[in-house]
């Protein structure tokens, strides 16, 4: 028995030395795995959804917990708090674009709906404030470009 244990220890030491002498694997250049939200809704026609009053109202009621939720609405309702807290870090590019499109639409076209949702999901109003600031900056740039083009047209006339 002692002989068996001795052989086992020697084999373990040889194995350890051979493993220890192996070169380390090269560092990977790939980014670590990034978890994203389910992408099954990435190809939804948002313009169609935003153009359907009844459907939009139902989603808003679901998100406010004042109406029933479809399975899609329930999934959205469960995702929004995390997406807001992490600045959509787990969103696919399509989801990020879509979330911005929908929230911009609500802020610009359905401010009462947005105010109610904002109280639930962004009580400090940080998203709205940042969006309106960016929008204002863009409008100023657009105005400056238009004014410059008009002045150039007058000079050339």
Automatic annotation (TrEMBL):
Instruction: Report the SUPFAM superfamilies cross-referenced here.
Output: Chemosensory protein Csp2
Q: Which UniProt keywords apply?
A: Signal
What range does the record give for the signal peptide? 1-21
Q: Which InterPro entries match?
A: A10/PebIII (IPR005055), OS_D_A10/PebIII_sf (IPR036682)
- Which protein, by its recorded name, is this? Uncharacterized protein
Q: Which organism is it from?
A: Glossina brevipalpis
């Amino acid at each position: 028995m002692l002989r068996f244990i001795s052989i086992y220890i020697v084999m373990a030491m040889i194995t350890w030395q051979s493993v220890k002498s192996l070169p380390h694997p090269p560092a990977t250049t790939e980014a670590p795995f990034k978890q994203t939200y389910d992408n099954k809704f990435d190809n939804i026609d948002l313009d169609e959804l935003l153009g359907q009053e009844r459907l939009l109202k139902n989603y808003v009621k679901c998100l406010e917990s004042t109406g029933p939720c479809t399975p899609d609405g329930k999934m959205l309702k469960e995702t929004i708090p995390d997406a807001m807290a992490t600045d959509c870090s787990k969103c696919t590019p399509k989801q990020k674009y879509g979330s911005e499109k929908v929230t911009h639409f609500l802020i610009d076209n359905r401010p009462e709906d947005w105010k109610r949702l904002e109280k639930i999901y962004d009580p400090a109003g940080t998203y709205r404030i940042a969006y309106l600031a960016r929008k204002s900056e863009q409008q100023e740039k657009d105005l400056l470009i238009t004014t410059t083009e008009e002045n150039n047209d007058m000079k050339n006339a």
